[in-house]
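Subject: for your reference before the review

Hello V.,

The reviewers asked for a structural picture of the protein, and I figured it would be easier to keep everything in one thread rather than splitting it across files. Below is the amino acid sequence we used in the manuscript, unchanged from the supplementary table.
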Amino acid sequence: MLLAGVLVWSAANIAAQTPDPAVDVHWIGGSGDWTDPANWSTDFYPRNDHPEPGDRYHAIIDAGGDYTVALDASVAIDNLTIDAPGATLRHTGGTLSVAQTLAVLQGEYDLAGGRLSDARLATPEPGSFSISASHSVLRDVTLDSTVEALIPNGFILRVENDLTLDNATVRLFSTGSTTRLRFYGGGEQHLLGTGQVVFDGTTGSDTRALV
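And here is what came back from the structure prediction:
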């Protein structure tokens, strides 16, 4: 949607990017596990190719109230939209593969030890992205211009294969402990696109590294 020349993100924008036969599935629970079917508007939790091969999903977390969606399993979907101010998706384990866009319009996506794969991550205000566990992983992820990824003091954010910045910012923040953006895996890994990697905090640059 264009408003006064500005792109306005909405769940409808995300759904429009999803080719048929994608199905919108809404979170209807309070705090709970992604893999509990009772928390979703269908009788199963969203993951592509289930219950039938070729099934595709756009998962939408937009229920009211304050709650945490816990993800500790590997799930592949087409799109994910978080659009509730009191919602937090806490991703503690497994691989979340998003073929197109993970958009945090309101609420928070907390990468807390899991792996985010293939996604284009967008966090237009007031949405937010946080990294709350060291050794969390980004695999073949594009960070949209709305993203500022803060790697906290003493944390390592792992990158597998490529990381693309689309005018995004990655900030390595150190107050004394080594803080790193580290590329892992065999073969070549690349930092692609245009953006900023900022060395921040109160100590010298020897405690912050892009390796």
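For the response letter, the relevant points are probably these. The chain has one helix and 19 strands. Helices lie at 11-17.

Happy to draft the paragraph if you're swamped.

O.
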